[in-house]
Amino acid sequence: MRSICSTLLFLALTVPAWSAAASSDTWTQYRGTNRDGISTEKLTLGSKAPEEVWKASIGIGYTSMAIAGGMLYASGNKDNEDTLHCLDAKTGKSVWTFSYPQELSPNLYQGGPNATPTVTDGKVYILAKDGFAACLDAKTGKAVWKKNVAKEVGAKKPGWGFSGSPTILGRALFLNVGSHGLALEAATGTVIWKSGGEAAGYASVIPQGTGKNIQLLVFGADALHGVDAANGKKLWSHPWKTDHGVNAADPIVLNKQVFLSSGYNFGSGLVDFSGSPKEVWRNKEMKNHFNACVLIDGHLYGFDDGTLKCLDWATGSVKWQQGGLGKGSLAACNGALVIVSDKGELVIADAKPDSYNERSRTHVVPDKNVWTSPAIADGKIFVRNPKGDLVALAVK
Q: Per the confidence metrics, is the pTM higher than 0.85?
């Protein structure tokens, strides 16, 4: 175990934080290749709404989409079986599928898989609600390895199942499984380190730093943890105890400060972790129930339960608010907010702090509880609803 940890530390010293960052692909994992919800594509999103170019059915679920090498990856459930679909991103045609037993588990929502696939170095990594994980060949769907990691390390399943998307750092795979995370060898699935067996939070693991100072931000069920990436040692914790342990929105980091937000009337806050963690501010103006905000030029854009808001990063003060979109989701691209309402509307609006200005609005995947965040890649916006309608919308 010690030699494996030493190997991981060496790898952490010699690779960038996101191993996919050197790729030309822009959306290889949940919330984009940089995991910030911001696309680097230079799309012009004007008053004309993007147009549907193809539609596919992938089964019930809430995973977002990962796009790499001209392929799209997303999961759904049918007849208590999860299926990861690999589709041609240009046409929507099926390339391959990978299925495994998994209960639908509806619980105040339609159910199905929660965690978005992660694609890097020709491999696809998935995590299911019961702790089943797998590494697949991205071109063929053939399993490199597969196993239930939660059972292997004795980690309790959260109430709504494991939901944090896989994080790749060098040759290590990090999952929000256990008290403050789990590390595996990405190539083999071998456990490098594990944490306690308590139920995890629902957010993805966020790596920070470079060289020997890389740490992981792991949003647990009742606290945010700073964890040494090499050995799993917990460096610090900041209490964040919410109802039902629902810490679901990914933490957002800027200059040793991290923004946290949770629903169930809990609220948000900014925490400085340059030394011992301390709160800069906290309020109830941004309650991210599921989906994280995007941070653009010192301002946070996101959903405060059923209201879209813009907050000042430094102070937490509200710059503007807009109702009528429900508990939606959003991404950003080239100065625009790409918003999906909980009724399946695609809304394009200005990403500006002075006021809310809507450019276009159109129904693209009508349904209820449309909570999955959109993906942006290859000149298209990809949106899905819970029952599995997945659409590709071309930006002219």
A: yes
Percent of the chain whose predicted confidence (pLDDT) is above 70? 94
- Domain of residue 335, residue span: 2-394
d(C-alpha 5, C-alpha 109), whole Å: 40
Instruction: Give the separation between CA 378 and CA 66, rounded to whole angstroms.
Output: 12
Residue 89 near residue 74 (C-beta atoms within 8 A): no
Does the pLDDT value for residue 4 go beyond 70? no
Read off the pLDDT of each residue in 292-298 and give the average, rounded to a whole number.
98
Q: What CATH number did the domain enclosing 153 receive?
A: 2.130.10.10
Give the side-chain half-sphere CA count within 13 A for 279. Answer: 12
Please tell me the predicted confidence (pLDDT) of residue 87: 98
Sign of CA dihedral 129, 108, 203, 298: positive
Closest among 388, 385, 380, 331 to 90, alpha carbons compared = 380
The H or E element that residue 162 is part of is: none
Q: In whole angstroms, what is the distance from residue 156 CA to residue 138 CA?
A: 30
CB contact at 8 A, 308 and 322: yes
Residue 23 is predicted with a pLDDT of 58
Q: Which alpha helices (DSSP H) does the chain contain, by range?
A: 2-14, 149-153
Q: Edge-to-edge strands of the sheet including 167-169?
A: 167-169, 172-175, 182-185, 191-194
Backbone angles phi, psi at 213, to 5 degrees: -105, 20
Q: How many CA atoms lie within 13 A of 89 on its CB side?
A: 24
In 3D space, the residue among 389, 396, 381 whose CA is nearest the CA of residue 39 turns out to be 381
- Count of structural domains within the chain: 1
Question: CB-based contacts of 267: which residues, under 8 Å, 6+ apart?
Answer: 261, 282, 283, 284, 285, 286, 287
What pLDDT, in 10s, does the model give residues 325-382? 999 999 999 999 999 999 999 999 999 999 999 999 999 999 999 999 999 999 999 9
